[in-house]
Specification:
Blueprint: H1 9-25, H2 30-41, H3 46-55, H4 63-87, E1 92-93, E2 96-97, H5 99-103, H6 105-124, H7 130-152, H8 160-185, H9 190-217, H10 220-223, H11 229-232, H12 238-246, H13 250-257, H14 264-275, H15 279-296, H16 304-319
The structure holds farnesyl diphosphate and magnesium ion.
Magnesium ion binds near residues 84 and 88.
């Protein structure tokens, strides 16, 4: 399911304007445009869409106020993915060759830094509320801490609490910040800011659980990544944690996922063991519970078109295939 296809006419128009702003933002330098355009093209635009929808959730907020920030959010997200692919030595992202594979890690670091700097330039030049800078800085700090924690515990089985802390830092805080920023730009009151932010947190937890699940059962052609990519890089996620606590073959699975260097055959074995348990259903049920928690925060005082879009995004998060 593609949530973009279900958006209202205004939201779809805003999305087109966003695309133009993103292209503009990477057009200052010829090499940057050539390197970034293919990477940016395949994104779902979930983060800026959340921000734009929340900014228009009560009354219309002019696009001049929202677009620079929405663009900055997509640039920060892309920068983090460029750096993530260097860390994971990934060769493909969104079905295209990663910057590190194409240009080497040195240039890829700089491409990520450039996107990141461009994002903050857009924010600095558009006179946003002081809270905007603070929220953006905090969300990036949390992304880094989440990534560092993950990289310092590769091939180690996290507890459920450690897993949830990690996905909160890596994903949920980012999505909740997008919603919070939309509400702040639209000058909503603190209760409205809080409830939209809570919607984003639950949505983010569901989003990352499904992301982790797709690593085992997604269609590789659609996700753009081979099965077991997380296992190969030592990132142990919810399907594995669940399978380890329920499978008769848990000792064999534990041996593979903590081995430090996983072969293709071992990945195939691990996936078979995981699929032989209730891990897939369990993760879906957990994600659905978070989506339900997200929906509860969508107040009836929101504009109907925006509430429907935010509900559809929640549905998309659990139904998505990429
Ligand atoms: C993708 O998640 C990666 C992240 C959510 C965050 C990565 C963050 C950093 C590298 C630090 C922040 C850096 C900057 C410049 C803002 P994933 O690895 O679970 O998903 P994937 O399967 O799509 O790679
Ligand atoms: Mg990754």
């Amino acid at each position: 399911m593609n949530f973009v296809a279900t958006l209202s006419e205004t939201a779809a128009k805003n999305l087109r304007e966003l695309e133009e702003n993103i292209r503009q933002a990477i057009s200052d330098d010829e090499f940057i445009f050539e390197a970034c355009e293919p990477l940016i093209r395949g994104g779902k635009r979930l983060r800026p869409m959340l921000m734009l929808l929340c900014a228009n959730a009560k009354t219309s907020c002019p696009n001049e106020r929202t677009m620079p920030l929405a663009t900055a959010l997509e640039l920060i997200h892309t920068a983090s993915l460029v750096h993530d692919d260097i860390i994971d030595t990934s060769k493909k992202r969104r079905g295209v060759e990663t910057a590190n594979s194409k240009y080497g890690a040195q240039i890829a670091v700089l491409i990520g830094d450039y996107l990141f700097a461009k994002a903050f330039q857009l924010v600095a030049e558009n006179n946003y509320d002081a809270r905007v800078q603070a929220i953006l800085s905090k969300l990036v700090k949390n992304l880094c801490v989440g990534e560092i924690r993950q990289d310092r515990s590769l091939f180690a089985v996290p507890t459920m609490t450690e897993y949830y802390t990690r996905i909160n830092l890596k994903t949920a805080i980012f999505l909740s910040s997008c919603c919070e920023l939309g509400a702040i730009v639209a000058q909503m009151d603190s209760h409205e800011v809080e409830t939209l932010s809570a919607y984003g947190t639950s949505l983010g937890l569901a989003f990352q659980i499904i992301d982790d699940l797709l690593d085992f059962c997604g269609d590789e052609k659609v996700t753009g990544k081979p099965h077991g990519s997380d296992l190969k890089s030592g990132v142990i996620t919810l399907p594995v944690i669940r399978a380890l606590s329920t499978s008769d073959e848990a000792p064999a699975l534990r041996k593979i996922v903590t081995s430090g260097a996983v072969t293709c055959d071992q990945i195939a074995t691990a996936i078979k063991i995981i699929r032989g348990t209730d891990a897939v259903d369990y993760c879906r049920t957990r994600a659905e519970a978070h989506v339900e928690a997200a929906r509860i925060n969508l107040s009836s005082s929101l504009k109907v078109s925006v509430r429907i879009a935010l509900e559809r995004i929640a549905e998309f998060v659990v139904d998505r295939t990429r």
